[in-house]
Design goal:
Length: 462
Amino acid sequence: MKFVRVSSVFESPFHLPCMLQTARILPSRLFLTPCAPSTRRWISGLSSGLSNHVEISGVRYPTDAITNVTPAILGKLPLRLHTQPGHPLSTLRSLIEAHYPDYAHLSSLSPLVTPYKNFDELSFPKDHPGRAVTDSYYVNKDMMLRTHTSAHEVEVFRAGETKWLLTADVYRRDEIDGSHYPVFHQMEGARLFSADAAGMRECEEDNARLRQQLARSDIVIEDVPHISPTNPVQPSHDPRHAELVAKNLKLSLNTLMLKLFGGVAGSSSENPLRVRWIEAYFPFTSPSFEVEVFFQGKWLEILGTGVVRQATLDTAGVANKMGWAFGLGLERIAMILYSIPDIRLFWSTDPRFLSQFEEGKITTFRPYSKYPSCFKDVSFWSPKDQPLHENDFCDLVRDVAGDIVEDVEKIDNFVHPKTGRTSMCFRINYRSMDRSLSNEEVNAIQAQVVSRLRDQLGVEIR
Ligand code: DAH
């Protein structure tokens, strides 16, 4: 959570570092350290009446010191918005799948994965911030909710797929506002070639075909070198092969951007679509890139991609291949294409939302009346031993209030000079997407938030 937040979704749809799990190293993060005992009580108590397990899809999982999934989060698992016919996320999935007709299309893999699969198999360092209990949801130390669709790369490659797309719900503990939701949807795509002369010929032919396709359109591409000292070729790769594969990934994704945004951002000669490539870092690719699209006066980061690390392919038993992969955030793209202003709307079951959409068609969302919002502040002293983490606060609020919490903002934070204790003040903004909330109702919810803060997170209300 940031201290002062930009409110427009188009200015900051997802934090780039958070969304793409780049290697930002925050020394203050706790890595797999147990939650405070008070937090633990709250979590297991909520899930199953102070029991020592959580039940997910009929299976019982033992809880332990790092369990931090909440009932509000577990309740999202069965919804699978990306497969609900007519839902904007499903239409977007189908559109991208139609762009890659000869790829395998996967969309039903379980969100429960081992931390090994989510991180280690993809060469994430042991101290990567994404592993922290403050950032990811753990069922217990051996099972978590995937934080990205890349978690399935090894198993799909191992199954022998060489061209595939995989769409899924992913889970990250995060702040609350109009563009952040702890569950969102990603699509992973990958293509492998044989790492030999025949494979590289196939790659070159595909590059020629894609280049022709792009030449017929108006698209302005700002490129970076495929390989550079700061974005190196992998030691086991022939640099000429890595160049060809990186070129293939760029051409393939440029055609996808043209398909998705060409109509919206303009693909005419007066108003061409502008796409920009940026060097990036991901633990499981090298070279790595991000793609941004210029939309309504701003550059929007759309996806992460790169040449797949050979270690990943070796683990998957396909050491004789090389290729690329990408991961894109569906909500972000859908918010742009459909003009959907608030990420919570994707979860709405209100007919005024759902009836606006038809499978396969992109239409502009017509906002229905916005009901008034109502904010409440809460100030408290954090427990002495462990200052409260904002994500713990947000999960508690979301668990009490569900989707009527629009926004949570930390409006004050100070450390008492004498006692060393931390005082915080949060402003919770309540607004329903489909009805007016009464003041009494909001007061009752706020009272529950306050009492659970006190009883379960051990804070001292001021
Ligand atoms: N998994 C990354 C994320 O969620 C995105 C990503 C980056 C996927 C690079 C890829 C890739 O397949 O090659 O932040």
